[in-house]
Amino acid sequence: MPTTTYSTKTIQKIREPAYYGVKTEKNHKRAKSVPWVDVSDDDEKSKRNSLKRKNSIVNGNADHSRNGQNGHKNKKRRSSIQNGDTPQSKDLANSPGSSQSKRGHINGSGPSTPHTAKFKAVQEQRKQLPIAKGREALIEEINKNNVTILLGETGSGKTTQVPQYILESGLARNGMIAVTQPRKVAATSLAQRVAVEQNVSLGDLVGYAVRFDEKSSAQTRIKYLTDGMIVRELMSDPLLSNYSVIIVDEAHERTLRTDLLIANLKKIQAKRNPKTDPKGKGNADTSNPLKIVIMSATLDAEKFSKFYHNAKILYVKGRQHPVKIYHSAESQLDYTDAAMRTFFQIHTDQPPGDVLIFLPGQEDIESLQKSIELYAKQLPSDKSEVLTCTMFAAQEHSQNNKAFSPTPPNTRKCILATNIAETSITIPGIKYVIDTGKCKEKQYLARISGGGFDTLLTRDITKSSAMQRAGRAGREGTGACFRLYTEDAFNTMAVSGEPEILRCSLTSSILNLKCLGQNLEELDLMDKPDLDSMADLKPVASALKTLWLLGAIDNHQKLTPSGRQMALFPLEPQYACAVVASKEYGCTSEVLDIVSVLSASSKLFIDISEQRDAVTEARRKFRHPSGDHLTVLNAVKAYRDIAASENKHSRREWCRKHFLNERTFLEARDIREQLVVTCGRIGIDVSVSAKENEDLVIRSMGHGLAGNSAFLQADGTYKQTMGQTIVKVHPGSSLCDKKVPAIIYDDLMYTNQIYARGVSSIPKSFFLSLDAFKQRKA
Ligand SMILES: Nc1ncnc2c1ncn2[C@@H]1O[C@H](COP(=O)(O)OP(=O)(O)OP(=O)(O)O)[C@@H](O)[C@H]1O
């Protein structure tokens, strides 16, 4: 496509819709969901809102709720806290309990001198956030209620400010404030921002914890952490007694771990908080009560309120800066092409400002990145430069964080991201969002023929996602969001997605619950997965079967001692099982090498389609005849040798030459260190090595992957041992052109066929030694 043709095409197709914030609110009301106002603030509407805000009455006493005004029966439980007349927040820098006056400078990474221009600017910015006007009312409500549901528009200041208000008001005297996030990148970037606002070094007063990475200390009072990390903490501290306040942010995402957390928090609160009689007199231990705050911009607040015994719902209205929303006038079938045309249209016609493009997955991101870079080179020299960055879950953390780096002068940054950039985060400089309307979602695919597996399917986003995406613009100034779908398409989108607990594999979560002495079916969940035990079609039954195969639970579904050991590892249960089994086979060192690489966020082997022959040739060096697991091990050993003798530059060059991702090696090294600590806790000697006897390594992996195994059939395909599904070996596997009697594999990928990835050959006789297989036969 020549560069001249895209410049007008997209904009002709995109038109500004009739104002539709009101329609959105109506739709949500009808769906009994988010009472949202003004997603798409056009300038006029925004002015009108701010006028209204100035004129409205304070809702600090919590009884001027929307529903209250409408005569809703729930009126006492809802209130709006956006208004200007609320008792004003104290000057944060001087408020009691505020740490700012005691600390040093701001420079982005550590404290700086108080009262520098930058420090003052950040404090001024905080005061301007819509939520600041309701600070006192908000604190009062959180103080009065055990559970508070807080709905506030994207960018109103919930995630960064509420934890600080709670800290500064002294509401969390007995413990830390946890703020949970569904995603790593949000947890770390928010902690960074709040550390700057508090003028402290990251890891002191403000810290974070995500899988394989933590920055916190004994001084930490506000901790941003992924929902997965706090669910793991339940295993060592079932009452979460280190925390006084737990804020569940972006609760609308309804991740599996968020659902497990909110169910557990209900139980914990019943134990930790006083049971008050109708007259308000407490009769239980009050020494360490827990407060819960549930937050989101797009939440079914009523449902959460009902779940928590009619908890109070509060609203924060308004966003700091308006975001103009444009819809495509026609459907865009080729959304990557449409995204590219829109990007260059913005680059050609619009004022400076970085662009964030939402795409469903890594493949689309990488292909669009290439196209954008290619066309950017052909731009006239007087145009500003284009710098692309990518963000997706399978990319290493530090690489994702590059999107947050300042944009160089005379450059427009273009960030291509999946929905990991959809909620919570503020990427400085982003003024424009391009939303393709697509995402990838994990889905448990049940097979009528037996068994099932998680796979990623591309699908249309929900209204809630569309609003979150638009909300990434307009965080530092006015913004615009270009939706590559029609307004009608938006109107027909589901309000929110199906909770993960109803559509994903539950193996790891059920194992964690077993360690807490809980059964999924007994837990008071907001939405219960299908517990009908109709064999393997149901995720619960399938997860229990996998755990039984791993030997993590017995025939009565009771946790076994090795199941308890497996749960201690921050790994998928299959890999944890392989590590536990490696003790018996005397090959822990090798198994740790392999599972560390397999647990890293990005792939070790880089595939470049244009250099397929060179890639195949380079890989031959590591290729092991038994398959991909020992091929990984060979690469780890080779890298270790190089790392011992060569400098950083030569190491990097070696990796480049062999199409290996050095970042994966480095990440795997850190993961391995953490696994070594866990092994030490349960008496597994990590120095024990199989040496030349690599068959032992495959057998250990086989214990973990017994449920992911298949036998060769006469027609050359493989049939699952634990189901009827027919699988093929993925073309990227070192076993793809071989036929072996039995295989184990890491996962299945569903395209037009079902492919097994991460495949190794294993003796068929191995399965006869497994108790689970023996029992099954019997
Ligand atoms: N890293 C950052 N750099 C610059 N400004 C930031 C940063 N993080 C937050 N802000 C500012 O604080 C505002 C509020 O952010 P915050 O994340 O608290 O809002 P929110 O209401 O939680 O939004 P969302 O629902 O989208 O998560 C942003 O709009 C932005 O102006």
UniProtKB/TrEMBL annotation:
Q: Which GO terms describe its molecular function?
A: ATP binding; double-stranded RNA binding; hydrolase activity; RNA helicase activity
List, alphabetically, the Gene3D superfamilies matched: 1.20.120.1080, P-loop containing nucleotide triphosphate hydrolases
Which top EC class applies here?
hydrolase
Q: Which residues form the Helicase ATP-binding domain?
A: 139-317
Keywords, alphabetical: ATP-binding, Helicase, Hydrolase, Nucleotide-binding
Reported EC number(s) for this entry are: 3.6.4.13
Extract the ranges annotated as region (Disordered). Answer: 1-125
A cellular component term, taken from the record's GO annotations: ribonucleoprotein complex
Keyword Acyltransferase on entry: no
Reactions catalysed, as given in the entry: ATP + H2O = ADP + phosphate + H(+)
Please tell me whether the keyword Thylakoid is annotated for this protein: no
**By its UniProt entry, which PROSITE patterns does this protein fall under?**
DEAH_ATP_HELICASE, HELICASE_ATP_BIND_1, HELICASE_CTER
Sequence ranges assigned to domain Helicase C-terminal in this UniProt record: 339-517
Homology family: Belongs to the DEAD box helicase family. DEAH subfamily.
Recorded protein name is RNA helicase
Q: Which organism is it from?
A: Psilocybe cyanescens
